[in-house]
Amino acid sequence: MGTIESYLKVVNNTNQDIIDTSVSSCDNYDWDENCRPDRNFQHQNIPARGGSVSQRLEVKRNASHCPFNMVLTFADSTVDKFRIHQKHVFGCCAGFNHMQRAHDITFSVSNENQPTLIIQIANTNQQVQNEEAEKKNREGEVALETKDYETAIKKFNEALNLNSQDSVSNKIKSNKSQAFNQWGEELLQKIGDLEADITDDKSQEIQDTLNEALKLFQNAEALSNSPKYQHNLTLVNLKIEGNRIFNEANEMEKEAFVIFDNGGGDIVAARNNYKDALVKFQEALKKFEDGLQLDRDKFEDCVNIARAHIEEVNQMIDDIERIGLNDRTSGQGNIEKDEIKTESEDRIDPRLI
């Protein structure tokens, strides 16, 4: 009957090694006993990115198609299974059937040196995108290590747009939330430096930086429900709310002093304004003390300054009441008033002006 020599070549163009091959459903009538795919192509390892294995096969001359099934197992546990006719190299139909699909498979025939059926395995478009996503994620991790947070977040966003694998998406989201959180922590440190600087008024810059940090912590917490991120979000919310109330109280204190400072001012109105300011300072102090329980370094100065204002306002209220409402127009009342003004001016912390 005689046989005809041909070759089968499998090329792995994917990004995963083929760690095992198996062949089945070979008809004994079609093949030479020693040169058949279920012998020559069993348990082959084919490296990724262009690795290949080629084996000689001998088919019977009068065999019709010489079909066989091949299973390819990859390093990531994915599997391709297909059926094809070896005699396609001699012009019969290919009979190709991709029965279990993990990758793209194409086939062709080459007669350059000897008749060869070439099977090419390649990543799908989505797998190519997933590979690019992992590359973008690694680039983001490098940027994160150098504290280039803007670039890191950009790379993580690009990776998320490309990726379709749940496990990889979770990793990218974790990295992205870490970038938001670290950026926010860096801004909190900047706020501490601004608060320690008493050379000029930094209140607006502090407020703007706090708002920016808040958005970063909100973004981090939305991506990852981490206790650490929730902690930082609570910190910055307490800081923002405490500062807002403190600034309101500070304005009330200033207005009260203006009324009191006016020669014909209303001492009753001044006292009431100081009392309103006192309530606000106490509210601000409560926020700062809550923050102090979470992070002493970030709130200790705020607590001390709020307490100093409360002490100052209490002293002003006591001094005003000591004057006596009935004596506010008398000479003695004016002397005491002048003394209180001088004492009040001496008590003002330059960091709070």
UniProtKB/TrEMBL annotation:
<feature type="compositionally biased region" description="Basic and acidic residues">
    <location>
        <begin position="335"/>
        <end position="353"/>
    </location>
</feature>
<feature type="region of interest" description="Disordered">
    <location>
        <begin position="328"/>
        <end position="353"/>
    </location>
</feature>
<keyword id="KW-0802">TPR repeat</keyword>
<feature type="repeat" description="TPR">
    <location>
        <begin position="133"/>
        <end position="166"/>
    </location>
</feature>
<dbReference type="InterPro" id="IPR019734">
    <property type="entry name" value="TPR_rpt"/>
</dbReference>
<dbReference type="InterPro" id="IPR011990">
    <property type="entry name" value="TPR-like_helical_dom_sf"/>
</dbReference>
<protein>
    <submittedName>
        <fullName>Uncharacterized protein</fullName>
    </submittedName>
</protein>
